[in-house]
Amino acid sequence: MNEAMQAFIREHAIHEIECVIPDMTGMARGKIVPKNLFLAEDSMKMSRAVLTITVNGEFADYARFAGAHDPDMVCVPDASTIRLVPWAMEQVAVVIHDCEDFDGKPIAMSPRAVLRKVLGLYEARGWRPVVAPEMEFYLIAQNNNAHEPLRPPTGRAGRSEIGRQSFSIDAVNDFDPFFQELSTFCSAAELKVETLIHEVGACQMEINFSHGDALALADQVFLFKRAVRETAYRHGIFATFMAKPMEGEPGSAMHIHQSVVDTATGRNVFSRDDGSASELFFHHIGGMQRYLPAVMPMLAPYVNSYRRLTRHAAAPINVRWGYDNRTCGIRVPPSGSEARRVENRVPGVDVNPYLAMAATLACGYLGMVQGLGPSAPMEGSAYDLDFELPRSLEDAVELMQASSELSEILGREFVDAFCAVKEKEFETFNRGITAWEREHLQLHV
């Protein structure tokens, strides 16, 4: 057992440890283990099929784990991830685990292993990605009937938001008790949240993280979603990370800012010595333009995700790029040469953070090593152009399965398993009949 983890458990008088792995959806799966048992064991065993559970709790039709063939995997704690669970009634810690085979090799379809694989490709070139996620989410009134539309919650003033309160300080302050406790939880769990703003939608908020290592930030986003939900429960409301939770309101994104530094010098490889943009910067954009459509299941993973990607809704419909142009899927924010970066505006906030970061970095990497050139930057509105991204989950899965380049980067086993999960979810969704169908087809066709 790692000495740092032992010291953490002693220092905080921990009673139990949540031993978790992120599954394909980004949910926390695992076991709650008493302190003594955790200290006595180096790992835990779980079925590999756990990684192929769909968002609605079914197992994907993935042939490798069918019937009698359901092998275990070894889940090894990553000592760098141990943190307090600040909302727990007792002293509880959480540790994120890596999934390995019994010979110590990573389980190829584990989301954390997929991100590690992509980061390893950068490392082999002497590069290190730097990322900064921006997360949008809605606070909503508690609801017990899934057939009823969601609505904003009641704040301190005793009213729900009416109309748009974009960037309003007072609208955020209306939920001060919630945000104050969330801030306390984030501090205790070492989640490096930077800023909070009110976004465009009714009771839609945005949290920005400090830039840093992609794996560490994926861990933080994974834990942050849990912290937000738990804080909301304690204040009699819900928080949702659906990409498009309310009709007539904007969707919620997880924009990812990304750059690449030279590991030997620490210099941003997107900039030349004279401060101008480098060839690698443009190749990175070119790779994103070429390959983002094929990783869409990792950036828009559910049927609901595609409701967000519509014209004139602060969400992209194509892979155009531009300088400080928010109509584009790929935006280059204003910055100095050391902070030159690319913002991927395609991912919804409903993503698995490990897979979203692996996907966007894989696209940029392919552009850099293949020397792909980008299109000319957009001067006007990218909404005036055609759709270039898949319009549905079904189409997106087909594109992902057909990309041999991405299968090599991400791993064929992962692509097959992940697409099997998405296909199962789509199949389950198609069994349901929507309110729209009843309203417009029941008496008119």
UniProtKB/TrEMBL annotation:
Source superkingdom: Bacteria
CC cofactor: Mg(2+)
Residues annotated as domain GS beta-grasp: 15-104
Domain GS catalytic per the UniProt entry, residue ranges: 111-445
Gene Ontology MF: a single term: ATP binding
Record Pfam families: Gln-synt_C
Keyword set, alphabetical order: ATP-binding, Ligase, Magnesium, Nucleotide-binding
Keyword Ligase: yes
Gene3D superfamilies membership: Glutamine synthetase, N-terminal domain, Glutamine synthetase/guanido kinase, catalytic domain
Single biological process term from Gene Ontology: glutamine biosynthetic process
Similarity annotation: Belongs to the glutamine synthetase family.
Protein name: Glutamine synthetase
UniProt organism field: Crenobacter caeni
